[in-house]
Amino acid sequence: MLRKTVIITGASGDIGNTTAKVFAKAGYNLALTYCAGSTKELENELKAFDIEVKSFKLDQAKETSITKCIQDIQSFFDYIDTLVCNAGIAEYESLLIEKSTEEIDKVLDVNLRGSILLNREIAKIFIKQKHGNIINISSIHGLEGSSCEATYSASKAGVIGLTKALASELAPYNIRVNAVAPAFIETNMTKCYSSKEKKDIIKRTPLGRLGKPEDVAEAIYFLASDKASFITGICLPVTGGVVKF
Ligand code: NDP
Known about the structure:
Low-confidence stretches: none
Strand order of the largest sheet: 3-2-1-4-5-6-7
Bound molecules: NADPH dihydro-nicotinamide-adenine-dinucleotide phosphate
Number of domains: 1
Largest sheet: 7 strands, parallel
């Protein structure tokens, strides 16, 4: 039987790194992507598992990079089972009226346009093989909107729309498409928050703690697994019970 391969974009970041380890433990081959960072250390760690791991450069803001990355992955691995579309960027907090068009475009290009193009490229492969899983990473801000992060919120709301639309479109081909919407997770992306801000978030979180990359990684793995074989088109909040920031 062919071993399943999972593509994890943004594996050089914290949620992607932890997600890679969860899939490695479950015996998947791994196609990892990085942009300005590196997945070398992660690749070395994953040598402990009896799986194939290879890293690929991906700039999600560029269509040519997306198509090349998927072609390279397809020529290296026999059978791609799952795409975890995780790479993303935050925006610095300020009123929308203070944002330049360039800043807005950058967030939309990476988080939304890049996700749409990646979903399209992988769908071409999944339709041919009549099987596949896509898990897109949205955010609680995509569900609820966050003041002073209007573009990021819009990009992540767009990811939910993409997920729901594509779930219907691809269901006849036995392809499931789901999303997760994390709230505050302790990663490189949120390291700019002060300890006072983190305490405030904990106070407003019913489960009384900050989220960890493992919380998101396990939710992603569940949605990719056969345990979720009758689930498609959902956006699963991973928020510790927070409804709105
Ligand atoms: P990190 O900053 O740790 O990781 C971000 C990842 O995205 C890195 O691997 C980075 O690659 C990659 N990336 C950035 N720009 C590009 C690009 N242009 N092309 C391709 N890859 C790129 O953040 P997290 O692990 O926290 O975030 C992962 C996802 O989770 C993101 O989509 C984020 O929006 C989402 N999220 C995070 C939350 C949080 O609280 N942390 C909450 C809700 C959602 P490299 O470093 O190599 O440049």
